[in-house]
Every structure is written in C-alpha cells, then in structure tokens.
Amino acid sequence: MHSSVSGKTVIVTGAANGIGLAIARRFVELEANVVLADRDEQRLTTEVDALQNGAGKAMAYHGNLQEKLTVNNLMAATIDAYDSIDILVNASRQILPSDPLMDKDGVFEQLMHQNVTVNLRLAQAVAKRMIAQSKSREKDEIIGSIVNLSSIAATRTMPELMAYSVSTAALDQLTRSLAVAFADHGIRVNGIAMGSLMSASLRETLKDNPDLHDTIEAATPLGYIGEADEAADAAVFLASSKANFITGQILAVDGGRSLVDTVKIPAH
Fold it and tell me: Which residues lie across from 148 on neighbouring strands?
C-alpha cells in the first residue's frame, strides 16, 4: 500500500488505547515506522506486539511524558531506532471534571500541564530534530508535520469541564502559534477538535451512564457517535503530503456537533 507517509517515522503519544492506538495502527497499516508512547506499559506492550505483523514497523516507548527527561529519552530512542522523525501526533489527553469555585485537587494545573505544556515540549523537541536532519532543505519543502488532538470543548462553555475546556482552548492557540513559528522551517502544525467520538474515556463513561449514549446522538447532527478510526483518518490526512498547504487549522471531527446549540430553549 503506497502513501505519502510510507517509510516516515511517526511518534504517537497516548497510543496504548482508544484514539491514540487507532491513529498509530493506521500509520502502521500505511507502512510508516511508528513509535507508540504511553505510560501504560503492560497494555502498550500488548498492542505493539499485535502490530508487529503489520505493513509498517511499530516500537513501544513506555514513560511519563510529563517529565522532561522522558521526552528526551523518547527522542533518543526514536532516532536510535529509525534515524529520523517526520511526524508527531500528540494524542495523549487528560479529561477530568472541575469545580469552578474551588480547585482543591489542582485539576486546573494538572490539565494545563498535561494538555498544553507536555504537547509544547514534545513539539519543540521534535521540531528541533526535524530542522537538524533537514539542513539541505529547499525553500518550499515541507519537512515535517505535527498534529495535536484537541476537543470541541475548547469553544463550548461547560463549567463542569472548565479546566478541560480552558486547556483545550489553550492547545488550539498553541497549535496556531507554533504553525506560524515553524512555517519558515517547513514544519506544519494542525489540530483535530474531537467530539462525539468513541474514545477510551467516553466508552468508560457510557458504561456507568448508558442513557448518555442517546443524549450524545441526539446532540449530533449526523446522529451517531463516531469511531476512533475517523480521528485516525483525519490525523493521517493532516500529516500527509495531501495537506501540504494546510497549517494552523483546527479540524472538527464531531459529526457536526459543534455547529448546533444543544440548549433546549428557543434562541431570540
């Protein structure tokens, strides 16, 4: 199977399950060399073993990416295995409820660190490597792509998810800022705003609250909850040469959910 990501080296974080795993699996299917990074060592090892018979190559990297040393070690392990880094997909996210009146558990700080700071550190490290390995780059040549997984929560006002909404809004702005900052070096940066997708966290939530399934479908114009593979397709597109003239964009993959007002009160 030929594609513009064939033979490219891809780092996918949050890759032990859910959407991150679906993205990693799709890149392997398209013959990329994929490093799956996650802190869940047992599940990560199991999933990477299952990918070894795929068209591409898969390697596991276990560690807590909130630690700077872990980021450096991830870079070193990737370069040691594949010599280069061409694509980064920041798919590791954390979703926690928060209290707008009191942040007694430090949820706000925790989500800002995981959803924004960690992604920034990875993007900076990867961009430096992309630039270093492309010293003979021609003026208009695209040398790398970074894709950040965000959420439609960034543009919705949900007090019970305030910390998550604010962190994803900050991530969207980070995506746009890095897109402009890295453009001169031929590195594209885009985001995917997810909503109405069957992530690992949503699957667990629906187990405890099955009625929520119908509520989400009713709030989604296309009328169903999307699968993780739909985010994977979007990530591959944004990372591929088919999107070479696209940067700084936040692509909503949500079945149209962000287009409608779900409040059951007439607007005037």
Answer: 90, 191
Who's near 259: CB < 8 A, 6+ residues apart? 221
Say if 266 falls within a structural domain. Answer: no
CB 187 within 8 A of CB 230: no
* CATH code of the domain containing 41: 3.40.50.720
Query: In whole angstroms, what is the distance from residue 23 CA to residue 265 CA?
Result: 38
What's the whole-number average pLDDT of the chain?
Answer: 92
Percent of the chain scoring above 90 in pLDDT: 76
What are the pLDDT digits (tens) for 26-39? 999 999 999 999 99
From residue 3, alpha-carbon distances to 48, 171, 227, 256 in Å are 22, 29, 22, 28
Residue 1 has pLDDT above 50, yes or no: no
Residue tagged 């992309």 (tokens): 130
Number of separate domains in the chain? 1
- Look at residues 64, 54, 9 and name the one whose alpha carbon lies nearest to residue 34: 9
Strand order in the sheet with 33-38: 57-62, 33-38, 9-13, 87-90, 144-151, 187-194, 250-253
R_g over Cα of the chain: 18
**What 3-state class would DSSP assign to 243?**
helix
36: β partners: 12, 60
pLDDT tens string 96-107: 878 887 877 899
Let me know if residue 108 belongs to a domain: yes
Kindly give the pairing relationship between strand 144-151 and strand 87-90: parallel
Which pLDDT score, from 0 to 100, does residue 268 have?
Answer: 45
